[in-house]
Predict the structure of RING-type domain-containing protein.
Amino acid sequence: MPVQAPQWTDFLTCLICCNEFECNIRRPISLGCGHTMCKSCLSKLQRKQCPFDQTVINIDINQLPENYALLQLVGGAIPEALPNNILSLSKDDYSYYLEAKKCVEELALYLKLPSSGATNGVLQNSPLSRPMQRKLVTLINCQLVEEEGRSRAMRAARSLGERSVTELILQHQNPQQLSANLWAAVRARGCQFLGPAMQEEVLKLVLLALEDSSALSRKVLVMFVVQRLVPHFPQASKTSIGHVVISLVAQLARCPIAVSLSEWVSRSRKQRFVC
């Protein structure tokens, strides 16, 4: 039976023993499937399969290169010598591998924990938003010596690039325009609030639910709003409010971390945009 992997925010810890990677015994090694474990735990596996998704490990564990992109984040050094299986690559493939490896290791430095550390999986004072951090974690956990790992790295790099462009565009978009675009997305789905009074009340309730920065699921947030809205607005339903919340969350997923749903709601109330 596959084992459930920990959260992506625990990218500096072994997925099996849950201990932080370090330079001696617990050196990180990534598999083609994108899961990373310490060398000690990998050597103890009874089957040559990833314990999290049952992907077969096609290369001998002792021949898999260590993940120096992660190792450098816990104080490790990147050696010049490479494993023998890397040296057996063709001249062109060897050159491409070195270039890709260097790029990934340089990008990984953006995940280096500052003195303020991390809160709720988000690096404090980091130049990267949470979505960017997550996509970068996916990239640095790719095993470049395996075909599946290279395919994953290509997809992760593309996703990271697309997110970078999106955030760059949004950084040049003022809050008023962003708020107007979000409400336009709601209207485009046919999710009309029944009058400004109901809209104002929904905004208040969403802000109330998020004011303590709780990580609420969409379902919980919708139920919170509907239960408090129905006594005053009987026409409110889980479907209508759910469509609105989904629309807002989907649009805000493209925004920098600085523009949270609670912050946007607060701005919208002050500006009193009306659908």
Notes: The longest helix spans residues 147-171.
